[in-house]
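Hello,

Our lab assistant flagged a job as stuck in the queue for most of the afternoon. It eventually completed. Since we weren't sure the result was trustworthy after the delay, we are filing this so someone can double-check. Below is the sequence as submitted and the structure that was eventually returned. Let us know if re-running is recommended.
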Amino acid sequence: MISDAGTPTLSDPGHHLISLLKKEGIKICPIPGPSAITTLLSASGFSGNCFHFEGFFPRNENEAIKTCHHYETRNHPCIFFESPKRILKTLKWLNKHYEKAQCTIGKELTKKFENIIYGSPQDCLEQLLDTPIKGEWTLAILFPKREHSINIDFLKHCKTLNLSQKDIITLTTKLGWKKNDVYEQLLQIKQ
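-- returned structure --
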């Protein structure tokens, strides 16, 4: 399987062929080629130590909210593909819901008309006014980190369940709450 449009099987149905070949015992020999995902990440200025690739940006409003909300508590970029027909709509949606997000947007990466744009969703929209929208698009988004407020009722309920302070702190840090803030609230509940 050879592709002149990026790495096969990434957001592409080529994985079906690979699965069939594996079942038949045929050796798979990958030859790395250009990948818009890693190309954009390397030019984004975001840490490449940890990132997540989601495929195409969700078309459904609820799915978009759910997906993006998931990354508000993480400090690593999420990468999406987007079609030329939807790139402006996606950026407008991001601007409405995540105006402080940091974006790196790449068009036609590793190709003749490559273009990379940086900034907030609004900055990117403004820069796209002078850019032909045709071509393949990749977005790397670093969502603004959401601060968690401590839910006192939740902490009190944990205490009524006889959870230890250590267990409560372990649980709440997994929810993204700051350990010291939880500890302070637990001390106040004791009083």
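-- support follow-up --
The delay was a queue issue, not a problem with the job. The result is valid. The CA atoms of residues 50 and 152 lie 32 Å apart. DSSP finds eight helices and five strands in the chain.
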